[in-house]
Amino acid sequence: MTLAETVLGAAFAGLIAYALFGGADFGGGIWDLLAGGTEGGHAVRDRIERSIGPVWEANHVWLIFVLVVLWTGFSRGFAASVTTLYIPLTLAAFGIIARGAAFAYRKSVEALGMRRFFGAAFALSSLLTPFFLGTVVGGVASGRVPPSIGPGDVVRSWVNPTSLLGGALAVLVCAYLAAVFLCGDARRDGEHDLAGAFRRRALAAAVVTGAVGLIGIAVLRADAPLLFEGLTGRGLPVVLVSVAAGLTAFGLLLTRRYVAARIASALAVIAILVGWAVAQYPYLLLPSLTIEQAAAGRATLLALLIALSAGAVILIPALVYLYTLFQKASIEPKSPNRARPSSRQNGHG
Amino acid sequence: MNALQLVVADGVENLLFARTQMALTLGWHIIFACFGIAFPAIVVFTEWLGHRRGEAALTGLAHTWAKAMGVLFAAGAVSGTLLSFEMGILWPRLMDRYGEVFGFPFVLEGFAFFIEAIFVGVYLFGWDRLSPRAHMLSALPMVAAGIAGAFFVVSANAWMNNPTGFRLDAQGNVVDARPWAAMFGPSTWPQFTHMWLAAFVVTGFLVASVYAVAMLRGRRDRHHRMGLLIPLTVAAVITPVQIGVGDWIANTVADNQPAKLAAMEGQYRTTAGAALSLGGIYADDELRYALEIPYGLSLLIHHDPDGVVPGLEEVPADQRPPVNVVHLAYNTMVVIGTGLLGLALWFGLAWWRRRRLPHTVWFLRAVAVSGVAAVVAMAAGWITTEVGRQPWIVYGLMRTEDAVSPADGLAWGLAAVVVVYTVLTVFTVVVLRRLARGRDTLAPQERGQAHEQGQVL
Question: A78 contacts in B (CB within 8 Å)?
Answer without folding.
Answer: 88, 95-96, 99
